[in-house]
Amino acid sequence: MFRVVLQDGKLWKNCIETISSLITEGVFTFGSNGVRMMAMDPSQIAMVDLELLPGVFEEYDVKEEAPICVDLEEMKKRLASLRPNDKLELSYSDNRLTLRMVGTSKTSFTMNTLEPRKSSLTNPALQCSATVRLLADTLKDSLSKAKIVADNVTLEADQESFQISATGSTGDVHIRIGREDEALIDIDVKENAKAIFPLNYLSDMAKASSISKTVTIHLKNDHPLELDFTLGEERGKLSFLLAPRLESR
Amino acid sequence: MFRVVLQDGKLWKNCIETISSLITEGVFTFGSNGVRMMAMDPSQIAMVDLELLPGVFEEYDVKEEAPICVDLEEMKKRLASLRPNDKLELSYSDNRLTLRMVGTSKTSFTMNTLEPRKSSLTNPALQCSATVRLLADTLKDSLSKAKIVADNVTLEADQESFQISATGSTGDVHIRIGREDEALIDIDVKENAKAIFPLNYLSDMAKASSISKTVTIHLKNDHPLELDFTLGEERGKLSFLLAPRLESR
Amino acid sequence: MFRVVLQDGKLWKNCIETISSLITEGVFTFGSNGVRMMAMDPSQIAMVDLELLPGVFEEYDVKEEAPICVDLEEMKKRLASLRPNDKLELSYSDNRLTLRMVGTSKTSFTMNTLEPRKSSLTNPALQCSATVRLLADTLKDSLSKAKIVADNVTLEADQESFQISATGSTGDVHIRIGREDEALIDIDVKENAKAIFPLNYLSDMAKASSISKTVTIHLKNDHPLELDFTLGEERGKLSFLLAPRLESR
């Protein structure tokens, strides 16, 4: 049993919208240290890791750790009706999750929860040789541009810049975000890094620009990628891992 | 033969848009006391009653009572081209209805009229035990929320609140608009009232929030519902009746 | 080989969007006097003539006249990603056209060019007996209105007004833009003119209201129509010719 309140319900709404484009159901664990949801996508290529610390919530009352599994598409549909200034309360009892929205009226959506599948997912400690922090909107825009010409995208980091490129049958695209561009906030490259990723997954992940102004990208040659959208001190983050595409180049 | 002018053509446009989602053709009677249009929907579950008094019009010149029958979908398509500040003139002669829009240019749409089907519809005097006045947008929003989980909705009024609820296979929703909420303007309950209605009809009716800030709901246990969207003193109203769904509960 | 820069990339984007709704590929000739693109649509009913003078460009560096043929749909897709304040650079070398967008990051789209089909198109000197200058948005709006009732439209000019009318199975529409209307900027009629045109082509042409506030229409009885969207002194224009529909009336 728990009951938590978000002054700004939009944060939860945006998290669920982003996550639901990658996975269909998720096990949220409400514990004393916050809410955690980790899941692999069905094809085992991408991993989602959401962590919301108690500092995000206006009220946070969790008596006992409770893992609850929900259909994310159903939750997303309900959250779509949240009005801009609505407060959002999540509570759980008797195997039912309640989303309560308080604005000009009071709406309670009660949802059935699902039987969680057994899994012991842990976030693997990724190696990386390059870390880049960008404006999240610029990453999202750049991936949309790459999608115009191809299905896969090459991400690349060197001392001076972060680069996004793609090649398709009708032409190619090359995007450079250099130290001189305002979109590049920070770049720390121990060793140049380059890898290819599937664009549909990356574009879905980049939707998290709705919850964070910046995104941190961790890269290593032909290794999985990590994307971190942080919410600020003591608030948490939404992270993604994505396996590279190992194509003959 | 008649000729009437609306300074703000948007009122007519919004009325027709709302009505055309419920019925396909309508007989408008232009008389000395204003314009009246009453119609049952094809499945005989819902009734529409539009009454626009001469006070709504800038000019109102009706020589002789004329019932004209028009295809509402066709009229709606033409009205969609009305620009925000366009004046709208409706006139009729030789079995042809003309919609004239005057803005940066002058547009006249002439429409064929249809042979009206014989019918002697009168607005039945409904009984009701509860009358509730709400912000019309709140009703519209609440019905959208109910639609997320189900096809039917329960409306309920007691001394303290108006309630909207629905139950579906994936969960349920309960919306309470109480005396303490700004969305509830007035509530007068002689006897608690509760009935179930089909959501698709109710949602179509709630589109009339485009013509009125508030809506008055008349309810009685398992009886038809009346919704009134009034335009103000001496201006008229758009009303709807809807049969309840008598389900085993 | 050439390299030209547009401070406001939106002009090129809007031109290509308009043109690509009429033709699928175009041969752009970059020469010392500017850029020219002339093409007939596949059904030989409409002709497009784009002329951008060097004055439109911030930088204009063309060494040697180069005709390049591109897939307009592909170019349009890339230009859709242009952000409002992006600078646009077009350059060509080794049979590859590069669109470079400079904003918060730097994006280079490189496109394959196509083998231009042989053709020696020249803009025929049209005869006209009536010339009308209108607000381009009013023309676009009026054609949308005509499209509600029919597939063809009659354009007509006399001493006092320009008129657009159409007749369909459900009714007709008549739009009058007279000397007294602000939408009519200039009218010069030597002889009344009237002709019928296919609406789908005309509507596509009217999209050029995105590049010019006004449009000049050249008409003559049952003769082809010319529409000119000018960009101002020393900047160029986008023109269209359209064959009339010679129907039994």
What can you tell me about this protein's structure?
- Three copies of one chain form a homotrimer.
- Chain A is built from four helices and 18 strands.
- Chain A has 249 residues and is an alpha+beta fold.
- Chain A folds into two domains: 2-112, Proliferating Cell Nuclear Antigen, CATH 3.70.10.10; 130-242, Proliferating Cell Nuclear Antigen.
- In chain A, the strands form three sheets. In chain A, strands 6-2-3-4-18-17-16-10-14 form a nine-stranded antiparallel sheet. In chain A, strands 5-1-7-8-9 form a five-stranded antiparallel sheet, covered by helices on one side.
- In chain A, a hairpin with a 2-residue loop joins β7 (87-93) and β8.
- In chain A, α1 runs antiparallel to α2 (72-79) and α3 (136-149) packs antiparallel against α4 (199-206).
- The first copy, chain A, is elongated.
- Chains in contact: A-B, A-C, B-C.
- β13 of chain A pairs antiparallel with β9 (106-112) of chain C, so a sheet runs across the interface.
What would the average pLDDT of chain A be, to the nearest integer?
94
Please describe the biggest sheet of chain A, giving its number of strands, its sense, and whether it closes into a barrel.
9 strands, antiparallel
Q: Which fold does the CATH topology of the largest domain in chain A refer to?
A: Proliferating Cell Nuclear Antigen
Shape of chain A: elongated
As an assembly, this protein is homotrimer
Largest interface: A-B, 17 and 20 residues
CATH class (first level) name of the largest domain in chain A: Alpha Beta
Low-confidence parts of chain A, pLDDT < 50 over ≥5 residues?
Answer: none
Radius of gyration of chain A: 19 Å
Approximately how much helix is present in the residues of chain A?
A: 10-25%
Question: Per DSSP, what share of the residues of chain A sits in E-state strands of 2 or more residues?
Answer: over 45%
Structural class of the helix and strand makeup of chain A? alpha+beta
Number of domains of chain A: 2
The secondary-structure element order of chain A is EHEEEEEHEEEEHEEEEEHEEE
Number of contiguous helices of chain A: 4
